[in-house]
Amino acid sequence: MFYTIGEVSKKFNIPTSTLRYYEKEGLLPFIERDKNGIRKFKEENFEWIHTIECLKNTGMPIKDIKKFIDCCIKGDNTINERLETIDNHRKSVIKQIEELNKNLENLNYKYWYYKTAQKYGTCSIHKNINIYEIPKELKNAYLKNKCN
Question: What pairs with residue 32 in β-bridges?
Answer without folding.
Answer: 40
